[in-house]
Specification:
Helix content is 39%, strand content 16%. The chain has 11 helices and 8 strands. It is globular.
Length: 238
């Protein structure tokens, strides 16, 4: 069984190609992220097939954000699919609504702090209050935990300070923006290697393009798994 610390992001053109990739990867990857871009390409059907037919764990990355009643209704519908993780924006009222929608199910609600593709200039353009990104992430993470979030999405560069929060005890930290050494950064701006992310306190790392665009995706996944098993990847929770 593959190490569930690695979550493979299925950011591919459609569900058919994604399913072929999962079949190619086989037992090298056990946990898959299906995002908003895949939703109109058969994402929910893919999630169900990976879960029910192949026994994989599924992280549905929808980043839901709406009025509370709408979020609660949407999450209640998604929870019927028996998936593992679902993302919502980290605003406390959104988190509370999502937890109501997921009540009675095992699906974990993960709150987005600040997207790893954003830097301070992007936040200024969006009229987000002044301050260092790490401070804003810490503030949002603490508020999300207090609202009931099972975990947060944050860059590996902020994982350590979030893990140090008293409110983070027993909670999950999932880090996108993870790139193996030498990999193209793509649209990510706040990045670290898989080993660094885990050492910083992350429970799971999300890696997509460095795996599925590699000449041998299976070998790329196995290389990341080997890095996650190295002494350099020992986390404070180990």
């Amino acid at each position: 069984m593959a190490d569930d610390k690695l979550i493979m992001a299925m950011d591919m053109p459609n569900a058919i190609e994604a399913l072929k990739m999962a079949e190619h990867l086989g037992d090298a990857v056990n946990f898959y992220k299906i995002g908003l871009g895949m939703l109109t390409g058969g994402g929910l059907a893919l999630a169900n097939e990976l879960k029910a037919e192949m026994g994989k764990r599924i992280f549905l990355d929808m980043k839901l954000f709406d009025i509370g009643a709408t979020v609660e209704h949407a999450v209640r519908g998604i929870a019927q699919f028996d998936l593992d993780f679902l993302t919502v924006h980290g605003d406390p009222y959104v988190v509370r609504a999502a937890k109501e929608g997921a009540a009675g199910k095992d699906m974990k609600i993960l709150a987005v702090t600040i997207l790893t593709s954003l830097d301070r200039a992007d936040l200024d353009d969006a009229l987000i209050k002044p301050g260092d990104i790490s401070d804003l992430v810490l503030d949002r993470a603490g508020k999300a935990f207090n609202a009931g979030a099972d975990g947060v999405i944050a860059s590996p560069q902020e994982a350590a300070i979030i893990r140090a929060l008293p409110e983070a005890t027993g909670k999950l930290i999932v880090t996108p923006g993870v790139r193996p050494t030498g990999a193209d950064l793509g649209d990510q701006k706040r990045v670290a290697t898989p080993a660094q992310a885990i050492a910083n306190g992350a429970d799971h790392v999300v890696v997509g393009r460095p795996i599925w665009t590699a000449p041998s995706p299976r070998d790329a996944a196995l290389a990341i798994l080997a890095e996650l098993a190295s002494p350099q990847a020992l986390s404070p929770n180990s």
